[in-house]
Design brief:
Layout (H helix, E strand, L loop, with lengths): L29 H20 L7 H10 L2 H16 L3 H22 L2 H12 L8 H16 L6 H31 L2 E3 L10 H13 L5 E3 L3 H10 L3 H18 L16 E5 L4 H18 L4 E5 L12 H6 L1
Parallel strand pairs: 3-4
Antiparallel strand pairs: 1-2
Helix pairs in contact: 1-2, 1-3, 1-4, 2-6, 4-7, 5-6, 7-10, 10-11
Length: about 325
């Protein structure tokens, strides 16, 4: 058995409910598994595009929905581990494979032969007897192709590819920046009055965190199990404000060297691109506040949020806004 066929990421997962057998996965297995899964998925996409039969829901839309299932499973495991249990080695793999996933996604949405088949089914949708679920899937697929650059001219398609691959790198870098700053931040409390209102369990957890950092008193962090209960229960408004501002500042700092200049020159005003698919803290505490603040206060600035989509590829859906700008 060769290394590829022996890779547990590529095997069928004979586990309860098909859950990933994490104990069998090691970091060096991910990149070759994703490369092979992309090869398999590409062949599946080619067979749909080259099918000589009349385009219909089953042989185009349903087939697309099933294509790349294994790739999606592997990428989901990788990026979830990179968010929940990351390391420098894991981050390096994520950086390496993100452009591959972006390229594969582009190869789908920028495949004109395939797009014409999807468009044909979409334009005949009212007369082919689709139920509500099928109609939703069809509309979602068509929208993804449009947002994925299918309707751009060839020059803009080429630029679209460049941007999406750049964004795939930069989104991972943004997440790494946010994670590093989140891990570095601490709210060190030494006055017992400043933990007023907190449940006993949260106080004990904060005290243990302080001991782990060789400090007296209590330490609150920006990680959700610490941040959320402190923001909810703390009676100290000034400390809640300090913690909230730290979460927003970390999101802004995470953008440094990562995203803002990617789309320079494509529109006639500055663009700040903010990914929403980052860690829980940044996504819910900082991103929404940052977007609102920038859109309400930054005159002449376009703020767009990037969704991870399939792998990292559909991050480039911002091109739809660029096209209309």
């Amino acid at each position: 058995m060769d290394k590829i066929s022996a890779n547990p990421l590529l095997m069928e997962w004979n586990t309860p409910f098909g859950t990933p057998p994490f104990n069998r996965f090691t970091i060096p297995l991910f990149k070759p598994a994703i490369e092979e899964a992309i090869r398999i998925a590409s062949a599946e996409i080619d067979s749909i595009a080259d099918n000589p039969e009349e385009p219909g829901f089953e042989n185009v839309i349903a087939a697309l929905d099933h294509a790349g299932d294994k790739l999606g499973d592997i990428a989901s495991v990788l990026f979830n581990l990179n968010s929940a249990e990351t390391s420098r080695e894991m981050q390096a793999v994520a950086q390496d494979v993100s452009p591959l996933l972006a390229r594969f996604s582009n190869d789908i949405t920028l495949n004109n032969k395939l797009f014409l088949k999807v468009k044909s089914v979409y334009e005949s949708r009212e007369g082919i007897g689709l139920n509500s679920e099928q109609m939703m899937l069809l509309e979602k697929n068509y929208r993804n192709f449009i947002l994925g650059g299918a309707d751009l001219n060839e020059e803009k398609k080429s630029r679209f590819r460049e941007i999406s691959e750049d964004l795939s790198h930069m989104q991972i870098k943004f997440e790494e920046n946010v994670l590093e700053d989140t891990n570095d931040f601490e709210l060190h409390i030494t006055d017992r009055n400043d933990i007023s209102g907190l449940p006993d369990g949260i106080v004990e957890m904060a005290e243990l965190e302080a001991k782990n950092r060789n400090k007296e008193g209590w330490v609150i962090t920006l990680h959700a199990p610490s941040y959320i209960p402190f923001m909810k229960y703390s009676a100290n408004r000034s400390l809640r404000e300090k913690l909230f501002k730290a979460s927003v500042i970390i999101v802004v700092a995470g953008m440094e060297g990562a995203l803002p200049s990617v789309v320079g020159g494509l529109v006639d005003k500055p663009v700040i691109a903010v990914p929403t698919s980052v860690g829980y803290g940044a996504s819910f505490q900082g991103i929404a506040a940052l977007l609102g603040m920038l859109n309400s206060c930054a005159s002449g600035v376009t703020v767009v949020n990037i969704d991870n989509g399939f792998g990292a590829g559909y991050a480039a859906s911002l091109m739809n806004r660029i096209k209309e700008a």
